[in-house]
Specification:
Number of strands: 29
Largest sheet: 23 strands, mixed
Structural class: mainly beta
Length: 548
């Protein structure tokens, strides 16, 4: 549903809009989980739950703006908006899933009704999103003033604030159970060993829980200054503050934060009428652009995601009753907490001198009008990543330990070896992501019943870092393995954008097979040659034919 209202009277113009997109879905296909095409190891009965599984997703978007013309040279504008998104799973059975990790035909005392092969399951292992709410609200106030001083100026400045909230509860009902029939447990971390009458089992508590919120404020000022009849300068600066919250305020409210002095971003540009007749324009600009840190790092590294595994001796045949609230048998893990923590937070492992990520962008070009119908252009673009934020990991006692910071800077200039008895520590490579492009354009405006345009781009995307949308982490679709996306029922073959990808997760990833540190080259989304042409012809009958 969509609606819009517009008001205009005298010096005031205003509009507001509402967009509502509720979505409902029932029924889901299971993911393939075996070695052949379209293979499932689970039975038809075990997959009955998929018939009723579904989801609800409600999205509402409200926005509006008001413009007030104060006089012939001044304008005040106010914009605001609110976005609401809530996803939740429906029709999912609340039975705790168990899976045989070993067959049990030869385990003494197991009755025939419980005997089964590897991967026997009672019901699909389904993680339930009870709710995953995201809201964003913003207000932006701008003021523009035109005046004369050594030329003409259009000066514009403003202030804005954006508030982001995430409230989430994702979990397996009662956890999920893995049964190791007739096996003995041995931990390489704690050194504990043990088994029960029928083997051992573990209950896994894997999910995302908690609520966070934070604000980002911005200030900016920019001036479009026309010097004489040929030269126009565009000068400006923007700054922001940013706070990244944690899901564990009992440890620390914010994982890190940046002040206005940390994110000052200048913008410089110029346009010049080369011949003074408006037929040839030369332009160039440079700017620094700071990016926002993805909230995925708050969920994944600052306490939102949790993964606790409880290891117990298997001394009961009532396996359907095993869950997080019923874990009979001896504790085989042996730590003070009683569980293995595979998602320990990195809140206290964050570089206190962490800096925001940014990219510098330069472009220049010339556009020339050949005649009254046709124009050509030559444009050059150079984008270079200056800094990023990532999690960097190493192995400690068999578990991955992560720190959050800037690769190659601050506390992260040295990568500790995962196997110090074999490999020495080494310098951490800095991120490199550079894009260069040369574009040629040809345009013919509509006349004598037709128009056309064409452009060719020769470019290179080079470096060692694919960016926050990581093209290096793609799962083969036929494996059934996907990355979980927030507020979606189905996973995707690509990981969602975040500041916690695998690029610096372990030291082995930073070398090539010949022992060279920091291999670089064209990145996976490099497209060296792009050619586009499009146009349209209008026949005398009024029919129009277009092609691209």
């Amino acid at each position: 549903g969509f609606g819009k209202v517009t008001y205009s009277a005298g010096k005031v113009t205003a509009n507001g809009s509402l967009l509502m997109t509720p979505t409902r879905s029932t029924g889901r296909l299971p993911a393939y989980d075996s070695t052949g095409t379209n293979f499932l190891t689970s039975s038809s009965v075990a997959n009955n739950a998929n018939r009723t599984r579904g989801f609800e997703s409600d999205q509402n978007n409200v926005g509006g703006n008001i413009d007030v013309t104060l006089n012939n040279a001044a304008l005040f504008s106010a914009r605001g908006g609110y976005f609401y998104d809530n996803y939740k799973d429906t029709g999912v059975p609340l039975t705790t899933s168990y899976t045989y990790q070993t067959p049990n035909f030869d385990v003494p005392g197991v009755p025939p009704e419980l005997q089964g092969p590897f991967q026997t399951v009672n019901t699909p292992r389904i993680q339930i999103t009870n709710f995953d709410k995201t809201t964003q609200g913003f207000i932006q106030l701008d003021y523009s003033q035109a005046f004369n001083a050594a030329g003409t100026h259009l000066l514009k400045g403003g202030w804005g604030i954006r508030r982001s909230v995430n409230d989430v509860n994702v979990a397996y009902p009662g956890g999920y159970v893995y049964l190791f029939w007739g096996q003995s447990f041995r931990s390489t971390v704690t050194g504990e060993t043990g088994t029960g009458q029928y083997g051992y089992y573990y209950v896994s508590d894997l999910g995302t829980q908690g609520a966070v919120h934070a604000n980002i404020q911005n200030f900016f000022v920019q001036d479009s200054w026309q010097v004489g009849s040929r030269l126009t300068l565009n000068l400006g600066i923007r700054t922001e503050n940013e706070k990244i919250p944690t899901f564990r305020p009992d440890i620390q409210q914010y994982g890190f934060q940046f002040g206005f002095n940390d994110k000052g971003a200048p913008r410089l540009g110029a346009t010049y009428d080369v011949r003074g007749d408006g037929k040839m324009k030369a332009f160039a600009s440079w700017g620094r652009y700071y990016d926002w840190t993805r909230y995925e790092i708050a969920r994944g590294s600052f306490g939102g995601d949790l993964w606790h595994i409880f290891y117990r001796s298997l001394d009961t045949l009532d396996i359907g009753s095993l869950n997080l609230n019923n874990m009979p048998g001896r504790d085989l893990w042996g730590s003070a907490t009683g569980f293995r923590d595979l998602r320990a937070t990195s809140i206290l492992n964050t570089d206190p001198n962490i800096k925001p990520m940014y990219q510098d962008s330069f472009n220049a070009g010339v556009d020339y009008q050949l005649n009254g119908l046709t124009a050509v252009g030559v444009h050059y673009v150079h984008n270079n990543l200056g800094r990023t934020i990532e999690d960097m990991g190493s192995l400690v006692n068999g578990d991955s330990v992560y720190v959050i910071g800037n690769p190659g800077e601050g506390q992260n200039t040295i990568t500790p070896a995962s196997h110090p008895d074999v490999t020495a520590n080494f310098p951490t490579p800095k991120p490199k992501r550079q894009f260069d492009a040369l574009e040629l354009t040809l345009e013919r405006r509509f006349a004598r019943n037709w128009f056309a345009a064409a452009n060719y781009t020769w470019s290179r995307l080079y470096g060692n870092y694919s960016g926050t949308a990581n093209s290096d982490e793609i799962s083969t679709p036929t494996t059934g393995v996907t990355s979980t996306n927030a507020q979606q029922q189905l996973g995707t073959i690509a990981r969602p954008g975040s500041n916690s990808h695998i690029a610096w997760d372990i030291d082995e990833l930073l070398w090539d097979s010949h022992g060279n540190l920091d291999p670089r080259g064209r990145l996976a989304t490099d497209r060296p040659h792009v050619f586009k042409v499009y146009g349209s012809y209008q026949f005398g009958t009024g029919t129009q034919l277009s092609a691209f």
